[in-house]
Design brief:
The protein is an alpha/beta fold. The chain is about 30% helix and about 20% strand. It binds pyrazine-2-carboxylic acid (VGL) and zinc ion.
Length: about 240
């Protein structure tokens, strides 16, 4: 075999090997990208309460659809925390407390803009109860939020005044949790604010998109995903979990 011929056949071999290598890399990469919840991971199940599913006073479209998926995701986690929106009957976020105002309008409060909502998740009512089809017996903590009549709290970590802590960060830190996965209702409010505050507090944060549903009030859903991406929140699907 002449030199030129030899070179060209080696080149051929090299190319063949290269594409084989590429094929292997692709298949092992897809196996590697499956995320396995670790002992230092927690699932946060946000506000899957009667008021937020169809038939409830602040119903999220198809909010009940995600319940079986949340149950099956939760079975993969050693650590699960649930949140419960838990307002006083006279809560400042209720349109009913602001004469002349209607639900889904926005007002200015001392801590910033506040969307006004229909009365929802009043402490101790049936509407505030966690949905009966949520089956997560291993959940370790239910954190209630929004109980200060003068301050709303979408986030499970920090109230809407930007400074009052719910204590969830201390709990998670105390238990050595470094990564949170967030699911539930609603994507564009309590899920998004919880995930972004998790980032602010130094945690890695994933939102499992297909295990959430949004309210989408005036473009709020797209806006929330943009803000979450900027904050370093990673959007994943339930199929990305090992
Ligand atoms: C929520 C609006 C008002 C939520 C709670 O769970 O996303 N949204 N209160
Ligand atoms: Zn609320």
């Amino acid at each position: 075999m002449g030199v030129v011929q030899q070179l060209s056949s080696r080149r051929h071999l090299f190319l063949g090997g290269g594409s084989l290598l590429a094929a292997c890399t692709i298949s092992s990469a897809s196996a590697q990208t499956k995320l396995k919840p670790a002992a230092t991971s927690a699932l946060i199940v946000v506000d899957v309460q009667n008021c937020f599913v169809p038939g409830g006073s602040l119903a999220v479209n198809k909010g009940d659809e995600i319940i079986p998926l949340i149950n099956s995701i939760a079975a993969k986690f050693q650590n699960v925390v649930m949140t419960q929106d838990w307002h006083t009957a006279n809560h400042i976020s209720f349109a009913s407390q602001h004469p002349g105002k209607k639900p889904f309008e926005t007002i200015k409060l001392p801590y910033g803009n506040q969307v006004l909502w229909p009365d929802h998740c009043v402490q101790g009512t049936d509407g505030a109860a966690i949905h009966k089809d949520i089956k997560i017996p291993q959940a370790q903590l239910v954190i209630r939020k929004g109980f200060n009549p003068l301050v709303d709290s979408y986030s499970a970590f920090i109230e809407a005044d930007g400074k009052s802590r719910t204590g969830l960060d201390g709990y998670l830190r105390g238990r050595g949790i470094k990564t949170v996965y967030v699911v539930g209702l609603a994507t564009d409010f309590c899920v998004a604010w919880t995930a972004m505050d998790a980032r602010k507090l130094g945690l890695t944060a994933f939102v499992i998109e297909d295990a959430c549903r949004g309210i989408d009030n005036g473009g709020s859903l797209a806006k929330a995903w943009t803000s979450m991406a900027k904050a370093g929140v990673k959007k994943i699907q339930s199929s990305d979990l090992a």
